[in-house]
Write a structure and sequence with these properties.
By secondary structure, this protein is of the alpha+beta class. The chain has two domains: about 210 residues, Hypothetical protein, domain 2 (Endonuclease III, domain 1, Orthogonal Bundle); about 120 residues, Nucleoside Triphosphate Pyrophosphohydrolase (Alpha-Beta Complex), CATH 3.90.79.10. It has 14 helices and nine strands. Strands 1, 5, 6, 7 and 8 form a five-stranded mixed sheet that branches. A two-stranded antiparallel sheet has the order 2-9. A hairpin with a 3-residue loop joins strand 7 and strand 8. The radius of gyration is 24 Å and the shape is elongated. The relative contact order is 0.11. Keywords: 4Fe-4S, DNA damage, DNA repair, Glycosidase, Hydrolase, Iron, Iron-sulfur, Metal-binding. Adenine glycosylase active on G-A mispairs. MutY also corrects error-prone DNA synthesis past GO lesions which are due to the oxidatively damaged form of guanine: 7,8-dihydro-8-oxoguanine (8-oxo-dGTP).
Length: about 350
Amino acid sequence: MNISKQLINWYLDNKRDLPWRNTQNPYFIWLSEIILQQTQVAQGLPYYNSFITNFPTVFDLAKAEEQEVLKLWQGLGYYSRARNLHASAKYIVTELDGQFPETFEEIIKLKGVGDYTASAIASICFNQATAVVDGNVYRALSRLYGIDTPINTTQGFKTFKTLAQQLIDTKQPATFNQAIMEFGARLCKPKNPDCNSCPFNNKCVALQKNIISDLPVKLKNTKVTKKHFNYIVVLSSDQKTIIEQRQGNGIWQNLYQFPLIETSKEANHSTIYSEIEELNVLKGKIFQLSVFNQKPIIHKLSHQHLYTKFWIVNLEQELPEGVLTSSIQSYPVPILIGNFIEKFNF
């Protein structure tokens, strides 16, 4: 029996019952694949259910306000996925009359869709034999065949894409693609893979050579920077605060935050007090300053670690230009700020 058949047989006996496996609706499959980029199934499932409840069709998603989409996405991270999802929904509705593209070549043109996502949709929804290559596939194939080509290189992608394309069952491309992803997620895991239960344990090169923990190979070229964030949480006498929308092209683009003061090192009371006095909205006003968390909260992103403090400014005056603290929960915010809002209990 060849590898493809063994893999499919294992999958049919062991697959999880997930909602997007019970449909071929390209909108639902696309939505699930975007959510599951950089996100594990257990975390992504509630978000998938929320999205299809709030936006049951691509038309519903297209007509939604971006703030509504971002709020529903809150906590998943990598917010560009949500913005691209929304933009592509608008494109499908306005330019394609609501008809989802049906070929790999057309699907990959959607904003936020790469080779993996286009391959998944094309195979699952339209039975095209386009092999998926994601982290699970890299890991499974690199171990099974003993391939040490770094996966985060152009040559690595070509090597694994070519191999996956050779292995795919052209009569059952959807089942094969889902099988190899499920295999990597549940059996050939990054740590402590279940080699005893693996249907390929008599063929696996990495197991035979005892190099499972060495594969796949990934070049380390990301330098992590350290930043010190100080959020200023204003509380006025008329139960208002200040919240502003982030601009630019950063990861939290268009999300909301409290006024931010970034410092070169961990800030103390006097440093923040003098900085606050320069904020236009607080100039000339009487306030008291206290720190909510003495020890910085460390929020780790892929390229930077944020050491964050929240500073409470009690203002003895009204704040006409502020927003009511009772409405703060309605704004889409980064999870770092969302966690603070829950703890502070406005």
